[in-house]
Amino acid sequence: MNASLTLVQLLLASALLLINFALSWRLKLGLTRDMIWATVRMVVQLLLVGLILNTIFALHEALPVVLIGLMMTGLAAHAALGRVKRRYRHVFIDSFIAIFGSSFLLTGYTLLGILHLKEWFEPQYAIPLLGMILGNSLTGISLALDRFTSDLTSQRATIENLLSLGATRWEATQVLIKNSIRTGLIPLLNSMAVMGVVSLPGMMTGQILAGTAPAIAVRYQIMIVMVLAASNALGSTCIVLLAYRRLLDPCHRLRLERLKG
Questions:
Q1: CB-based contacts of 85, cutoff 8 Å, min separation 6
Q2: d(CA 30, CA 24)
């Protein structure tokens, strides 16, 4: 099998979007414009990424890799807030810290501690791996933060009653914190539970299509999933604890006036 895709083959794959357009038009879903925009944006972004990565791979220097990683982290931090209904001042900073801490830590551990690369900044490994971890982390962070701020708002009376009776801010909100972190972890856990039975992961499938032996592809996929699970847990925990410190002050007062939305 030829692993490379020709332009004609790519156009044939793109033609499948006509199914989406037809359904949107026939059922009057109102998504045609959004799908066209999303498709164009995706193609342009991927083409630009391909050009940038070709340049970065050719340079083989640490600084460009770090700069690309920081840019990706900033975009991920912004994207993580996209579905958070209630926000507070400096929430972007907290999101960036949570994503940066979890993603860079796990990427570094994987590159040096697991893969034992001679140079940690090898872009062929560092950038794709960081991208996978960032994409996974931002989902967990988004869900955990949205759940925590929503629960603080909906259970305001209960929390304030506990605080007025002498409970510390941790004692009054620890159940909410646990539930929020659990919410951030659920999507990946559900995916892990059916992986290999119901679904074949994208990385593993891509490697197999590219000609890698299935046994090797499976090993890499297991490694990636373990790293993603750890990153998801660290990111979700970090963002909830940061929000906890912002929205409940050291005097054990609930500060919901800091929330917007």
A1: 146, 149, 150, 261
A2: 6
Q: Report yes or no: 53 and 124 within 8 Å, Cβ to Cβ.
A: no
Among 100, 126, 98, 124, CA closest to 112: 126
The pLDDT profile of the chain, 261 residues, written as one tens digit per residue, is: 445 678 888 888 888 889 988 988 888 888 888 889 988 998 898 888 888 878 877 777 888 888 989 999 999 999 999 889 999 999 999 999 999 999 999 999 999 999 888 888 888 888 889 999 998 899 999 999 999 999 999 999 999 999 999 999 999 999 999 999 999 999 888 888 887 776 667 777 777 777 778 888 888 888 888 999 999 999 999 999 999 999 999 999 999 999 986
Domain ranges of the chain: 1-59, 67-260
Judge contact between 133 and 103, C-beta under 8 A: yes
The Cα–Cα gap between 239 and 35 comes to 31
Largest Cα–Cα separation, the chain? 70
**Locate tokens 């690369």: which residue?**
117
Helix (H) or strand (E) holding 87: strand 87-88
Q: Are strands 259-260 and 87-88 parallel, antiparallel or unpaired?
A: antiparallel
Q: What's the predicted TM-score (pTM) here? A: 0.82
The burial class, CB within 10 Å (0-12 / 13-18 / 19+), for 223 is middle
Interatomic CA distance for residues 140 and 191, integer angstroms: 13
Asked if 205 and 212 touch (Cβ cutoff 8 Å), the reply is no
Helix (H, G, I), strand (E, B) or coil at 254: strand
